[in-house]
UniProtKB/TrEMBL annotation:
It comes from the Bacteria. SUPFAM superfamilies: Mechanosensitive channel protein MscS (YggB), C-terminal domain, Mechanosensitive channel protein MscS (YggB), transmembrane region, Sm-like ribonucleoproteins. Residues 182-248 form the Mechanosensitive ion channel MscS domain. Belongs to the MscS (TC 1.A.23) family. It is found in: Cell membrane. This is Small-conductance mechanosensitive channel. InterPro entries: LSM_dom_sf, MS_channel_1st, MscS_beta-dom_sf, MscS_channel_2nd, MscS_channel_C_sf, MscS_channel_TM-2. It holds the Pfam family MS_channel_2nd. Residues 141-181 form the Mechanosensitive ion channel transmembrane helices 2/3 domain. It comes from Roseisolibacter agri. The chain crosses the membrane at residues 16-36, 70-87, 99-118, 130-156, 162-180. Keywords: Cell membrane, Membrane, Transmembrane, Transmembrane helix.
């Protein structure tokens, strides 16, 4: 038997020569794809190390995740065109190719999610460690969604009616959501905190009636160390519903105080008081004086109101400055002969046969 006769001989509906050509195409395309992938990966490794852009890093990661099984199926699909294949078998090959492509797509998607998570966690590891945990959960949820969608597409490619399955999953999802709606609400609130960042670990905040420092931001609760020492645990959903004051970004403190003087204080002395207050405030750096005025005349005292800013958010520094201002004001006012108002009270006594009214006043 000659070689031509051997190649022309039928085997499974195709000549041996056709099978030989298909095998050559299979091996040639497969090894060409493997070689091309390796070559591009090496070049991208050098360029990615020299640049700071993310594009080449993402492409490099995708190429590294490209499996040889995917390349083999591509080569098999190309080789199949060299053969006469019945429609049923060709349909099976196409479905197999779709399945492998979906698996490869899942690998690429998971890689993209992992790459994004790595970049974000590296950027936030030193400053916002709480959001790293939450972002890990986000990555898991994204992977679950990705694999679920690809699984449904794979079933659909094999002729399975996924409409009923999606409906069933929707009903089950609603039932589960109703059962754990509080937990889901806290988890979603945790994601909101991680992405919007109204506060981070270490921030001093005030929530409703308590004040403290954020120690931990979890998936369900946030733990706050109060200024009195105890730990306060608040659900994330309830925390976001409350009004939060965050003092971490504060750069200065506004201070307002009022001095009260007796009603009999002379006008000349009252005109002197705002000047004394201004001089006293400006002598205590770091501050910025705003105003000092004889602001009110009440039925009990004369009021002088002053406003200044401490150019630092430190609370202890503010209290030290206020203490020095108070002591200096006492000294300056005493030297000027100006007295501060003393709280008084009046007692009305009715007595005597003639109904005489006697009044006594005292401190």
């Amino acid at each position: 038997m000659t070689l031509r006769q051997l190649l022309a001989r039928e085997f499974l509906g195709n000549p041996v020569g056709g099978w030989a050509l298909a095998a050559a195409l299979l091996l040639g395309v497969f090894f060409a794809l493997v070689f091309a992938r390796r070559l591009v990966v090496r070049r991208l490794e050098r360029s990615a190390a020299a640049t700071e852009t993310m594009v080449d890093d993402v492409v490099l990661d995708a190429l590294r995740r490209t499996r040889k099984s995917f390349l083999f199926v591509l080569a098999l699909a190309a080789a199949s065109f060299a053969l006469e294949i019945p429609p049923a078998q060709r349909t099976l090959i196409e479905k197999l190719a779709k399945l492998v492509f979906l698996l490869q797509l899942a690998s690429w998607g998971s890689g993209a999610i992992a790459f994004w998570l790595l970049r974000v966690t590296r950027a936030r590891a030193g400053t916002d460690r709480a959001s790293v945990t939450t972002l890990n959960v986000v990555a898991v949820i994204l992977r679950i969604v990705l694999w679920t969608l690809l699984f449904l597409l794979a079933l659909q490619s094999f002729g399975v009616d996924v409409t009923a399955l999606i409906t069933g999953l929707g009903i089950a999802g609603v039932a589960v959501a109703l059962a754990v709606q509080n937990v889901l609400g806290d988890v979603l609130a945790s994601l909101s905190i991680a992405l919007d960042k109204p506060f981070v670990i270490g921030d001093a905040i005030t929530v409703d009636t308590f004040q403290g420092t954020v120690e931990h931001i979890g998936l369900k609760t946030t733990r706050i160390r109060s200024i009195t020492g105890e730990q306060i645990v608040v659900s994330n959903a309830e925390l976001l519903k409350a009004r939060i004051r965050n003092y971490q970004g504060q750069t200065e403190r506004r201070v307002l105080f009022t001095l009260l003087f007796p009603l009999e204080t002379p006008p000349q002395s009252m005109a002197r008081v705002p000047e004394i207050v201004k001089e006293t405030i400006l002598a205590n750096a770091p501050v910025r004086f705003d105003r000092a005025h004889f602001s009110a005349i009440t039925d009990q005292a004369l009021a002088v109101e002053a406003v200044y800013f401490v150019l630092d958010a430190n609370y202890v520094l503010y209290m030290d400055i206020q203490q020095r201002i108070n002591l200096t004001l006492l000294e300056r006012l005493a030297a000027e002969g100006i007295r501060l108002a003393v709280p008084t009270r009046s007692v009305v006594v009715k007595g005597g046969a003639d109904g005489e009214v006697q009044a006594a006043a005292g401190a």
